Amino acid sequence: EGHIARKFGRWLKERFNLTENENPKEWRAFHDAQESLESSSIRCRGVIAASTSDENIVRENILYLIRLSLERSDLLMPCYRACEHAAVARGYSKLENLFAQEREFLLQEFWGLGIQLSCIPLLVSSPPTVRSLLRIVPSQALPWQQQQGQQEKRHQTGTPTGTDHMEASSLSIDFDRLEEDSASQFALANASSLIPLIVLESSKFKAGHEALEENDIESGWSDSAFKHLEDASVMIAGGKSDGDISNLLKTHLQDIYALFVPILEDSPEEDSETYLYEDDEEEEERQATRDLIRKKAFYSLGCLKLVISEEITTRQAAKVCHLVVREILRLQGRQVSFGKHRLPGSAFLSAINHVAENLSTSKEKDGRGGLFESAGSSTTECILDSKRWLDEAMTQAQERNSWQVVECVCDQSCKEIEKTKDQMGFVIHVLLGILLESRYEKLRPSVLSTLQDITRAMMSETSTIQWSDAQNISTMNELLLALVHTHEECQEKLLRSCLGNWRRAQKGARRSMGLLHVKHRQSNDGGDVWGWDEDSPSNSEELSPSSIKLSEMSSALEKGDTGEHSHHIKTMVKVYDLIEFILLKSPSKANAAL
Predict the structure, then answer these.
(1) Contacts of range 6-11, beta carbons closer than 8 Å, 24 or more positions apart
(2) pLDDT, tens digit, 9 for 90 and up, residues 47-101
(3) Could you tell me the CA-to-CA distances from 15 to 26, 276, 557 in Å, in that order?
(4) How many angstroms separate the Cα of 49 from the Cα of each of 64, 89, 223?
(5) Considering only Cβ atoms within 10 Å of each terminal Cβ, which end of the chain, N or C, has fewer?
(6) Residue 475: phi, psi to the nearest 5?
């Protein structure tokens, strides 16, 4: 900040021959113009982040504002306002929810910029604190940024300053302590993401090295990563001794494996169709990033064994396998990425398979249970966790990503229907809960596709499900009732919208004729020629689907705009197909039972 101020002062002196002592008013006017320009630029960054549909542009602008708030603390308040505007415009209720969604990305960027854990910007570590400061500090600049300069000016001129007035009003805040406590709370709350990323940076492997010598691995951690680990140990465990660091890593061993195993299981063949690039350079950059991250993960596991013995690691990993599976599924829903490379969904499923084969000591590994049971968890536990993450989603993008996790669990259970048939009733119950909830109406076509796959697997000729069991019959009856209810709800919304659009179009056509008498009115959509009483109770009742005439319904569906309700149409078609399969096309043994 001092460098910028001195440079700006030299420019004013050279260009306009202005000095602060000789021309105080002109000097202040130029500085006010500078502050106005900076504030406008910051607001523009926030508007761009709020308006764009490109996630990379959002991240670029948010990261710029965070860095600016760190380098120019007097601009913390404008940066906070711009970030909060972007967060609310993108569907988040608060700024901290946006930072929580981008947590892994921000931490990677902080390590790349050389920002220590204890120096994480206050804007990221505690947005509620900045929000509170915005209420009690009226100016855009925080007092600790102006205090030293104001005190020097007071001693030179003998005049009171804004800080003096603030001190006179008994406003006393220890901002150094505030930033330190905020960083500690941030580390404690985000330890599950923080510790694995620190371990990932632990090896001395750098880009461009094809391999490391054996003595490089034995020599220990990189200095920067170990510094991060010491800071995290002090903030989370209260000390940085070897025992504290070892206990910290053992406590978060499930988080480390949950990040590292998908990275190591990621292969170019699995995500070849995930990315469609227009040029080869971008694809080569992504592949290079993927290879670099895999090598770093491999050598970082070697560094981890220098802190925790392999025997303890193996024994501890077997105890927390169910937590590893849960964290792997959570990371899949968060769409974890490194640079331009995003880990594909197949890598997470392969990671769970790796956990089942190499880490788990579950009794279900003999083949009687499914994949999740073999990995120490269960289909019921995984579907419940996935549903909880879906309910916690705030934006449509989060809903889609969380739904992919639910879909992944259901697809895997469907493939292993003979091993998980006892849990499929609960899986269907959870899916029906999603189907009947109005906030997920745009997910209904996907939910119905998953239900159809599960139903086909349960009713196949090779299935050993006993349809004489009352529980299975009850599940199918619950499914049929939910399907009929969903079809009626979508039909009512579609007809109501199309009829309203059609009647508004008819009214607009009549109004375009002015005061000319209309001899042949094709429909009585309420009111006179101008339709002043269109909002009267009698006319609102006419929009009820039960009172729609067949001719009006046909015209509404033909001429009405159904584009915005395309998901309702897809839902109705899929509901019909599923009911038809269950009642008419299912195998005879299941059909007879139903």
Answers:
(1) 8/34
(2) 999 999 888 899 999 999 999 988 888 888 899 999 999 999 999 989 999 999 9
(3) 13, 52, 70
(4) 11, 9, 35
(5) N
(6) -65, -45
Residue-wise pLDDT tens digits, 20-49 = 666 677 777 777 777 888 889 999 999 999
124 within 8 A of 185, measured Cβ to Cβ: no
Using pLDDT thresholds of 50, 70 and 90, give the confidence band for residue 492.
confident
C-beta separation of 382 from 85 below 8 A: no
What single letter denotes the amino acid at residue 57? I
Token pair for residue 469?
């069991």
Compute the distance between CA of residue 322 and CA of residue 274 in angstroms, rounded to an integer. Answer: 28
- Residue 420, amino acid: T
Specify burial of residue 558 (Cβ count, 10 A radius: 0-12, 13-18, 19+).
Answer: exposed
Q: What is the pTM of this model?
A: 0.79
Residue whose pair of structure tokens reads 């990671």 in the numeric block: 351
- Exposed / middle / buried, residue 132 (Cβ in 10 Å: 0-12, 13-18, 19+): exposed
| pLDDT at 361 (0 to 100) | 74
Model confidence at 435: pLDDT above 90: yes
DSSP letter at 446? H
Q: What gap in Å lies between CA 376 and CA 366, rounded to an integer?
A: 12
| Neighbouring residues of 217: CB distance < 8 A, sequence distance ≥ 6 | 203, 299, 302, 303
Q: Which residue has the tokens 């109705």?
A: 572
Gap between the Cα atoms of 110 and 112, Å rounded: 5
Mean pLDDT, range 468-490, rounded to an integer: 88
The chain-wide mean pLDDT, for the chain, equals 78
d(CA 2, CA 26): 20
SS3 content of the chain, % helix, strand, coil (to 5): 75, 0, 25
In angstroms, the Cα distances linking 379 to 177, 204, 275, 370, 418 are: 46, 39, 30, 8, 13
The pLDDT of residue 530 is 52
Per-residue pLDDT tens over the stretch 535-577: 444 444 444 555 555 555 555 555 545 556 678 888 999 999 9
Cα torsion angle, 276, 278, 284, 289, sign = negative
Taking phi over 0 as left and psi of -120 to 50 as alpha, with beta for the rest, 170 belongs to: left
Residue 525 identity (one-letter amino acid): D
Q: Which residues of 286-352 form beta strands (DSSP E)?
A: 337-338, 341-342
- What are the contacts of 429-435 at 24+ separation with CB within 8 A? 429/475, 429/478, 430/383, 430/384, 430/387, 430/406, 431/406, 432/478, 432/479, 432/482, 433/387, 434/387, 434/390, 434/406, 435/482, 435/486
Q: How confident is the model at residue 593 (pLDDT cuts 50, 70, 90)?
A: low
Long-range contacts of 176-181 (CB under 8 A, 24+ apart): 178/122, 178/129, 179/122, 179/125, 180/118
Where do we find the tokens 């969904």?
A: 345
Burial (CB count <10 Å: 0-12, 13-18, 19+), residue 157 = exposed
Q: Please, which pLDDT band fits residue 168 given cuts at 50, 70 and 90?
A: very low
